[in-house]
Amino acid sequence: MVDDSFNKCFTSTRPEPWNWNIYLFPIWVVGVLVRYFILFPVRLTLLMIAFNALILMFLVIDITLPRGRQKMAIQRKLVQWMSCAWVAAWHGVIRYHGPKPTPGPNRIWVSNHTSMIDYVVLCSYSPFAVIMQLHHGWIAFLQKRILSSLGCLWFNRTEVNDRAVVAARMREHVNKPDAIPLLIFPEGTCVNNEYTVMFKRGAFDIGATVCPVAIKYNKIFVDAFWNSRRESFGKHLFRLLTSWALVCDIYFLEPQAQREGESPQEFAGRVQAMIAKYANLRIVPWDGYLKYYNLGEKNPGLIEKRRRVLADVLRGYLGKQAQQPAAAAAAAAAAAAASGSGEKAAKGEQGGASEGKKEL
Amino acid sequence: MGQAASGGLTQGDVDEVIAASKGVFNQAEIEALYKRFRALDRGRKGYISPEEFLSIPELSINPLAQRLVRAAECPNFRDFVRLVAPFSPRASRDDRLAFIFSVYDVDGDGYISREDMAMMLKQLAGSSLSEEDTHAIISRVLAQVGAAAATSTSTSTAAPLERLDLPAFKRALAGADLSNMVVEVNVDL
After folding, report:
1. Interface membership of B172 toward A (CB under 8 Å)
2. Roughly what angle, to the nearest 10 degrees, separates helices B11-20 and B27-40?
3. Chain B residues inside the 8 Å CB shell of A3
4. Are B63 and A310 an interchain contact pair (Cβ–Cβ within 8 Å)?
5. Domain coordinates of chain A in residue numbers?
6. Strand spans (E) along A85-128
7. DSSP-H helix ranges across chain A
């Protein structure tokens, strides 16, 4: 109750107030005025012009040209330009390290996830197809009309059966010879760029070579973490458009293949360690989807395991001679249960965490 | 944005909460607990609902999770601090024992009766402990506490004890080790 390692992954860092004295405060006010009333309208208009023009071109090409390689190539270029328009609107200062991704047979790209803009930032450099959660509203329009041309796959994270379908389509995409690189976010949810939650093994299970990408945002001007529980995507974009700049480092790492005798989960863990090293993230063994459901309800087995241990302790009390005051044995076990997991400081979570990891 | 983290908390609130929790937390810890409270209270209602408590993964797999959450009774911030106060390193042994007593006393009548103990054993051990073992444990516990009480008050006849009140509970746990019942509040500087 006091602290736990899971919720830490989704807290935004508190910005240090630096505008507290008489010299800095007026400068800060001027900065706010510039950002909100000068930069923002300028950026928004330029963005709208560029973006709408490109979408128009895209739809025109979609309708007029026949299906074929040339059409796909043009559409990819257009999507890349659209992403560039967005990155320019955010004043993105993005450094790319490592070799640029080239499409190849049986390759899949994985990355850590901080916000939906991860995809835009990557796409402005080199086009990717991606597996995304299908959203609502204007984003859905973008997703269905435009991103589908890149071969993006849609899924619904609450649909249990989707997993097998998605796995099959991943395999199919990866096996196509001229397929555009497919990007997967194995965490499954946005994390605050200080931690990384458990990588799901779906992308590591299809027998492809995995090319890790590490994305690290510099929080100096804006915190790029999209806390979907606290703000809508529109508000998140607004925050980005009214900040001075978006600074980011992207590392394209060496492709990894699954080793002999390595399970998909271990493979995922190894790639996660690589990404965490470059992006300076702490690894936390929880499943990101715990944001959406209650662990105890979904996995009653975890609770039953603990109950069995306690039952053994209690039965032992019955079996052996009572050497200590009776209630002490039972109450001590209960105090351990009550204090042991419910009220925990950050340092004490190893036992529960390893159980959670094993079960998931 | 910097003010928003401790937004809504006045010095008067802090003083009141420190008084309500008998001074086991200092100002920095109260502020840290307030941040935690705000993080847990996702609906910004001013209290934490059971669902919000159970969204903490480690808490939700605790066998006593449901009992703890019901005992907490939708706490507002002051109740929340009073709830975790027995776990402060500065809390007294009496306070810790009183907390355990309140968890065990399921119906809240001030006594731990056979029914209370049966419910608690069901939560703790579930179906792994048979009915007869459960009854045997309860009877033995009551018998031993009764015997200890009888010898301490040096009456020759030991009246069979059917339930424990707080003083009897405290006496019974006089030798128990509660050192793992301590939690440090993470105060980030």
Report:
1. yes
2. 100
3. 36, 185-186
4. yes
5. 7-293, 298-329
6. 92-97, 107-111
7. 24-33, 40-64, 69-89, 117-123, 137-141, 162-175, 233-241, 264-279, 295-298, 300-319, 326-337, 350-359
- Rounded to the nearest angstrom, the minimum Cα separation between B117 and chain A is 10
Per cent of chain A over pLDDT 70 is 82
Q: How many contacts, defined by CB atoms under 8 Å, are there between A and B?
A: 201
Residue of A290, A313, A343, A359 to mutate, interface with B, max B Cβ within 10 Å: A343
Indicate whether this model's pTM tops 0.80: no
Helix orientation angle between B93-104 and B65-72, rounded to the nearest 10 degrees: 110
Looking at the complex, report in whole angstroms how far the Cα of residue B46 sits from the nearest Cα belonging to chain A: 16
Q: What is the pLDDT of residues A80-97, one digit of tens each?
A: 888 888 888 888 888 898
In angstroms, rounded to a whole number, what is the distance separating the alpha carbons of residues B69 and B38? 17
Please give the domain boundaries of chain B with CATH numbers for all domains: 12-91 (1.10.238.10), 92-175 (1.10.238.10)
Are A2 and B186 a contacting pair at CB < 8 A? yes
Please, which residues bridge with residue A212 across strands? A110
Distance CA B28, CA B187 (A): 6
Encode pLDDT of B102-131 as tens digits.
Answer: 888 888 888 888 888 888 888 888 777 788
